[in-house]
Design a protein that fits this description.
The chain is mainly beta. It has one helix spanning 31-34, and strands spanning 19-27, 48-55, 58-59, 62-63, 66-73, 80-86.
Length: 87
């Protein structure tokens, strides 16, 4: 992850084995869903990075053996992966 104001590297996370990152989004979950303190509108004050990956991805034909979604927190002294799910 990069700090957009300084372009300095904040964090580097390598994906496992033969995985490819296919999507990323910064999201704000509701405070009720996270069990944390809320900011305006009942959302968690800090954004979380949600990363989607595909394992053994091929393009022709498009296929993969598994998909993963990982949720990361950073910059609060509690950086790291919060949750991982496979589908």
């Amino acid at each position: 992850m990069l700090d957009p104001s300084s372009l300095a590297t904040q964090c580097v996370v390598e994906v496992d084995g033969n995985e490819a990152i296919t999507s990323m989004a910064l999201v704000h979950f509701s405070a009720a869903a996270c069990g944390g303190s809320s900011g305006e509108g009942g959302t968690v004050a800090e954004p979380l990075l949600v990363v989607g990956t595909a394992e053994n991805l091929s393009y022709f034909p498009t296929d993969c053996t598994a998909g993963h979604i990982r949720v990361y927190r950073w910059g609060t002294g509690q950086s790291g992966m919060l949750q991982s799910a496979e589908g």
